[in-house]
Amino acid sequence: MSLEFAIKGRAGTLSVEASGKLPDNGVTVLFGPSGTGKSTLLRMLAGLHACEGMIRFDDEAWQDEPAKTVLPVWQRPLGMLLQHPTLFHHLSVRGNIQYVQKRRGKGVNLEAIIEETRIGHLLDRAVHKLSGGEAQRVALARALVGNPELLLLDEPLSAVDLPHRESLLAMIQRVAQKVPVLYVTHSLDELLLLADQVWLMDQGRLTAQGPVTTALVSLTGPLAQRSDASSMLSGVCGSFDEADHLQTVLVDGAAFMVPLAQAKPEGALVRLRIAARDVSLCRVQPMQSSILNIHPVTVQEVTPTGAGQHLVKLALHSQTLLARLSSRSVRELNIMVGESLFAQVKAAALV
Ligand SMILES: Nc1ncnc2c1ncn2[C@@H]1O[C@H](COP(=O)(O)OP(=O)(O)OP(=O)(O)O)[C@@H](O)[C@H]1O
């Protein structure tokens, strides 16, 4: 099931023009500054904001410019959660869920969705009596009850509190194993946890589309320029040291020690987040260091990033690590592309 489009339209004075193809499954995070057209693009794809051009979902034309076909929103097999959830105010929460279930929810596991979105206690409540976070959870449940073949989510967790956020993120990850999800967020944490692909948007245009690991370490891209710039490594859990609460995570065979309250099962696939500011470089292997994670790396790219700082892109086996160093250190160590160095990773966390 894949969505393909080449569309253009306007939102006030902003011209939005974008083309792309969503992967068949997984989460594609749409990321970019405020007011850059992310919500408008989602609304265009859903058929809620007029645009010109082509939108196809599998073999079906949702919009076909020469033939002027425009499939009505309600005939598009998608689940949607807009920035301001649009629930039916004349119906209760239960009524909202049942409305979609009757029309599109054949065979859906309603109990599981209600349980995972934690809305069981809200079912008889009037929609106008929901808090912002509760309304988002109900809107997400309603989107899932319709058996969507595509999910369009616009900051779905912006008003949701931390305890509920984790279960919803896990649910979105599970849904994304079967259907494509286009997910707008401002949160780097959500991007790191969820994204398989990242689409970067700026001033109404998609400026980059690719795997999350590449987007994070593109030195000229907006993610590497952030003060919390991070790289993400994929790893496999090994043993757990109960006494020190350290989880071994193998990244292409390189063992990282990660502090963790509880053991992960051996063999579990995990993502490690490493902030660029937590990585330093040495010419010789440090001995008797308090840093637990020290690995040989090769310098791939070095670039200044303003205010006396440099970003250094490093190959760690087949994966990429980002380091933010002072320009003085880069100059005094004379760090050059192609060199073999040792990276000291001060902090690594599971996402
Ligand atoms: N219906 C409309 N009429 C006029 N201007 C609009 C309309 N919808 C959006 N805009 C303007 O178009 C621009 C893009 O808005 P949009 O909501 O798509 O941005 P965004 O990237 O989703 O922003 P944010 O991250 O803040 O939600 C903004 O300047 C907004 O004020």
From TrEMBL:
Residues 1-228 form the ABC transporter domain. Transmembrane segments: none annotated. One of its GO terms (molecular function) is ABC-type transporter activity. Residues 288-351 form the Mop domain. Keywords: ATP-binding, Cell inner membrane, Cell membrane, Membrane, Molybdenum, Nucleotide-binding, Translocase, Transport. InterPro entries: AAA+_ATPase (IPR003593), ABC_transporter-like_ATP-bd (IPR003439), ABC_transporter-like_CS (IPR017871), Mo/tungstate-bd_C_term_dom (IPR008995), ModC_ABC_ATP-bd (IPR011868), Molybdenum_import_ModC (IPR050334), Mop_domain (IPR004606), P-loop_NTPase (IPR027417). One of its GO terms (cellular component) is membrane. Pfam families: ABC_tran, TOBE. The keyword Translocase applies. SUPFAM superfamilies: MOP-like, P-loop containing nucleoside triphosphate hydrolases. This is Molybdate ABC transporter ATP-binding protein. It comes from Alcanivorax nanhaiticus.
